[in-house]
Write a structure and sequence with these properties.
single chain, about 375 residues, alpha/beta, TIM Barrel, 2 domains, eight-stranded parallel beta sheet
């Protein structure tokens, strides 16, 4: 009679662990940097891949009452999650097919062009209590935002301004991560000049990186995104106050032993230079591990950095576990993101934002909080319409 083999309890599904307490701590740390300025949290793209409803509720619990999403659909999901008392702004602005969602969910469109201004002005005149808006001025990014001619036009049309009823005037910094880039001061000057042409309205310019440019950029509201989730935002990470809040945990599905000269994965792009022990893990590019990490990226196994070998496939990635000091077994876990986020982004020749939003929807979300007695656990009038 054979002895039964111990099998740990595990799932083949990868897990995205999101530390909501750390997100709240990041919010508090950024708030401490900006004094009296309000914080409008950017939770677009499903809170950078981490789950807009769960993250929105955590930030609401930390005192945040202003949120930014990209589309009306995102805003509706967030509204259902955080309730009626938060202001939710839609950065991409209003469009005819979104009218019902914007009004029904009481979302506030950001006006990016005269076309949007005229469209939403006509909508606002038709309804009893239209939502407030924000006016976005382009100060040099040449993406969305009113042009100088648009600023002049909207400043002269008092009827349109009254219909839109803006409660913020905003712009967006293009080069804020590099404090020495002259574009920052140019945009600051343009923003002040353009805003001066408009009726007196609270102003907002800084994203996460803009917060670190100092008080002149803070105005009455800052709009952090990546800093809430612990990603590095500037070229000087040592000045930043945020810590990573998301970790991808991939289960080991099989441990294989290959001989020197054998190939691994699609197209045989990796040839084993020696006899090797390979951990096959249940996460691939569908779960946010970029294909260009094939044969070059790394992960963490038992707190040790290990190499990705072979081509990353849709559902699976292979790890060189040959030199791992501790036991490598089915059901064990290989770690991506977390403290490794910046190194992964550099290796993948991309940015930390992209690696977060790539996290696949099929990952099990584990909204983790440390125990209250853990020594490192962080301490824990709104306008109508």
């Amino acid at each position: 009679m054979s002895t039964p083999i111990h099998q740990p309890s595990y799932s083949t599904r990868p897990t995205l662990r999101v530390d909501l307490q750390q997100i709240r701590a990041n919010y508090d740390a950024l708030k401490a940097r900006v004094g009296a300025a309000k914080i409008g949290a950017s939770v677009k793209a499903d809170a950078y891949g981490l789950g807009a409803v769960a993250v929105g509720k955590a930030l609401y619990g930390a005192g945040c009452r202003i949120f930014f999403v990209a589309t009306a659909g995102e805003g509706k999901i967030l509204r259902d999650g955080v309730g009626p008392n938060a202001a939710i702004y839609v950065l991409n602005g209003p469009a005819p097919r979104d009218k019902g969602v914007l009004l029904g969910a009481k979302l506030k469109p950001v006006i990016n062009s005269m076309e949007q201004a005229e469209f939403w002005g006509s909508v606002a005149r038709e309804v009893k209590e239209p939502p407030y808006t924000a006016i976005h001025i382009d100060t040099g990014m040449n993406r969305l935002g009113l042009t100088p001619d648009g600023v002049k036009a909207i400043s002269r049309d008092k009827s349109l301004w009254a219909a839109l009823n803006p409660e913020w005037v905003m712009s967006h910094l293009a080069c804020a991560p590099d404090a020495s880039n002259p574009m920052n001061k140019t945009q600051l000057q343009r923003f002040r000049q353009s805003a001066a042409q408009l009726p007196l309205t609270p102003l907002s310019l800084a994203n996460t990186a803009g917060i670190y440019l100092g008080k002149p950029y803070h105005f009455q509201m800052v709009r952090p995104g990546i800093g809430l989730y612990g990603g590095v935002a500037t070229t000087k990470p040592e000045q930043e106050v945020s810590k990573p809040a998301a970790t991808l945990l991939a289960p080991i599905l099989q441990v294989r032993y290959v001989k020197a000269g054998e190939t691994l994965g699609y197209n045989g792009t990796y040839v084993a230079p020696r006899d090797m022990r390979i951990a096959v893990v249940g996460a691939g590019y569908a779960d946010g591990i970029p294909v260009n990490q094939s044969n070059r990226g790394t992960a963490i196994l038992h707190d040790e950095e290990v190499n990705i070998v072979g081509r990353v496939s849709m559902d699976l990635t292979m790890i060189d576990a040959t030199d791992a000091n501790l036991t490598v077994e089915v059901g064990g876990v290989v770690v991506f993101r977390g403290e490794h986020l910046e190194a992964e982004a550099k290796s993948a020749q991309t940015i930390n934002y992209e690696l977060l939003v790539r996290l696949g929807q099929r990952c099990r979300r584990d909204y983790w909080k440390p125990k209250k007695d853990a020594p490192d656990a962080p301490k824990k009038d709104f306008r109508k319409r």
